[in-house]
Amino acid sequence: MLSAEIIAIGSELLTPRFQDSNSLYLTEQLNGIGIAVMMKSIVGDDENFLEDAVRHSLARTPVLITIGGLGPTEDDITRKIVARVLQRQLVLNGEILAKLQRRFKARGVEMPANNARQALVLTGSDILENNHGTAPGLWITAEKNHVILLPGPPSELKPMFEASCMPRLRDLAGGIALVQCMFRTAGLPESMLDARIAPIYTKYQNPETTILAKPGQVEVRLTARGKNREEAERLLKELADQIEHELNDFIFARSEQTLEEVVGMYLVMKGATISTAESCTGGMIAERLTDVPGSSRYFRSGLVCYSNESKMELAGIPPLLLEMQGAVSAEVARGLAEAIRVRAGTTIGVAVTGIAGPTGGSTEKPVGTVHIAVATPTGTEHRQFLFPGDRDKIRWQASQAALDMVRRELMKI
Amino acid sequence: MLSAEIIAIGSELLTPRFQDSNSLYLTEQLNGIGIAVMMKSIVGDDENFLEDAVRHSLARTPVLITIGGLGPTEDDITRKIVARVLQRQLVLNGEILAKLQRRFKARGVEMPANNARQALVLTGSDILENNHGTAPGLWITAEKNHVILLPGPPSELKPMFEASCMPRLRDLAGGIALVQCMFRTAGLPESMLDARIAPIYTKYQNPETTILAKPGQVEVRLTARGKNREEAERLLKELADQIEHELNDFIFARSEQTLEEVVGMYLVMKGATISTAESCTGGMIAERLTDVPGSSRYFRSGLVCYSNESKMELAGIPPLLLEMQGAVSAEVARGLAEAIRVRAGTTIGVAVTGIAGPTGGSTEKPVGTVHIAVATPTGTEHRQFLFPGDRDKIRWQASQAALDMVRRELMKI
Predict the structure, then answer these.
(1) Facing A310 at nearest CB: one of B39, B283, B344
(2) What domains appear along chain B, each with residue ranges and CATH number?
């Protein structure tokens, strides 16, 4: 298996607040064509450290990808250091220079002199065009190494990598084909999901199965590897079909879609509308539903009835019911869902009432107790949950469970 | 200035989805006592790569901190590799072994044999106690290097580092004192904020000024360095006083507090209550306000009136007003704020109506147009905004501006 290293360059990357996301993106792309990432390094704008990092990487790993340090300032040292380690000259490329000048002219400004630095290239290198910024990338083929210099901004790095690097790297990797698929599920905790599918996927080394659990959502990813795409897809399908059959309607998406996007899609498909009445989630379900562009087609209105008074006044819950059952009860959840559905005149009304903590719990109704109801034209579904975790996690899981209940109701319509 | 490197160890750290947060934490701690982080590396559970990384680091940097690879399995290679590079023996430490056995016994289980591996220490190393897990850390003082081995789980790494490493590192760093302060502001874009304070802070090399801009919020951080704490604090105060005077009421917090926490604090302080009526923010303001533990003391209720019908029915906005002014108007924002304040019976009513995009904009009211109104016992404040960015950014900035307007009204009460 071909292996690669990544070096990210820039002093800002060594500050306490900076998360490097470029290397995660590159790792995903590289793994997808069968190239393993063996080491990642982050260095500042320091010539000695960068030289050391580049030199050692070249000695042990065939492919090196550097990120950043290609800008027009003194700080941008990547070209210079890679040239030094590879013992190559830096020469001014007239074509790049002319392109840079045109770019500035189009914006009606004179090109600052230091931008000419971006037209310097190592002798014998291939130029990777940058259609989203000024700094071109470079690909240098040395005796035992391929060195790829990419710009730091993700909006420049990603299109450049996909257009100019992936095809060449795929060839270098020997044309191993990798295909992937993904199932996003809600409603099954990780351990229960694993208990269901482990007997299936453990029979296969290829495809490889990865399970990724977040609060209220578990993802199953399958990656198959083959001599060609057809072989990989055949292997993937054999396992994927079995997993899909077993997980069935716990699967809400087969792509990177969120639950609110899936619910929105169903609402549009069924010509249905929705309204919300939330207590402990405090508006999170409305916020998630309206986070989807175009949600005004189906989202009408929401209530956040945090106090008992607002449950009575805004949603018309009888005071006696609140007193007898308590605000966190099946009856109040049902009442809220039905009331908001009628008042807003929507197909679906969804309501949540619960105890998110950290205070407010009791022996009978501990922190994490949540009642969710979904009112539809044919009746009202209710479920009671006990979510683990802190306030944030409880609120999130409650919103996730509510959206999943809505999804299941919409599938029936 | 003393310098350090960090090596994080573990194959999971080289997968596309893993963000390393330990090194950010360590960087913040180290910078705080005047130690610079010069390089960070991430390697898998691979003996050759780890050995290479450790060897090269020791040759160039006096302090090396490793994270992870101290567990009980074959994969956990950190102790072995560091011992090899430093040419030391690994010996079984009876005390650690006994402690491990006690730990398992307390849980009523037999210690698995491979856990004994965690009791192996390098000759001449200091043991860093782990009160939150099984693997102890190690501190090895070599001829020119200090090598610190820490466990990977943040819940074990952080307390160990603070208790056993920070005091020693502070001494090693020569007792340079660093003090910091921070101002969080809302309502001033980064460029305008910088134009105001650059004439002040550029006069000072020490303290150092860092400006960090996020949508709807700009942070100013000052770091002063002195021979002792008193000197550093004196230097910090001189600049901080001037910045604080200049930014004045744009500052909403002097710590890591969020705007919703600050608004919550004011509401409690003033004995006031709040309700919300949101269109384009879709519940985000209610969600942020109720994200704060204890918010039930002041948050009563919220409306998400996304459709025109819901603005009429739920908030009682006259149809004629909606027709004449349009839903996105000063009049509707004022009407919503006043209506929710009266209906919910709260001190404050805040309302937002706007166009979050991507569609729905016009020449007169482009995407990003947002009207915000805050109704109080003494009247209603209104402001119109035009926020840049995509849907998510516009919604976030609108919620930020609304909370900031509420903060300013509360300061007057």
Answers:
(1) B344
(2) 3-172 (3.40.980.10), 177-253 (3.30.70.2860), 259-412 (3.90.950.20)
Which ipTM did the prediction report?
0.71
In this predicted structure, what is the pLDDT of residue A137? 96
Provide the residue type at B332 as one letter.
V
Does residue A250 sit in helix, strand or coil? helix
How close, in Å, is residue B194 to chain A by CA atoms?
19
> Whole-angstrom Cα distance, residue B118 to residue B74?
11
Residues B192-231 pLDDT 10s: 898 999 999 999 999 988 888 888 999 998 989 888 888 9
Instruction: Provide the H-helix boundaries in A33-153.
Output: 47-60, 78-86, 94-106
- Measured CA to CA, the distance from residue A285 to residue A406 in angstroms comes to 11
Phi/psi of residue B341, nearest 5 degrees: -60, -45
φ/ψ of A304, rounded to 5, equals: -115, 100
Give CA–CA dist B26/B6, Å, rounded.
9
Distance from CA of B141 to the nearest CA of A (A): 23
User: For residue A272, what are its two tokens?
Assistant: 């249905």
The alpha carbon of residue A302 is apart from the nearest alpha carbon of chain B, in Å, by: 4
B170-189 pLDDT, tens digit each: 989 887 777 889 999 999 98
Nearest to B296 among A31, A289, A306 (CB): A306
Instruction: Say how far apart CA A182 and CA A178 lie, in whole Å.
Output: 14
CB spacing of A19 vs B16 below 8 angstroms: no
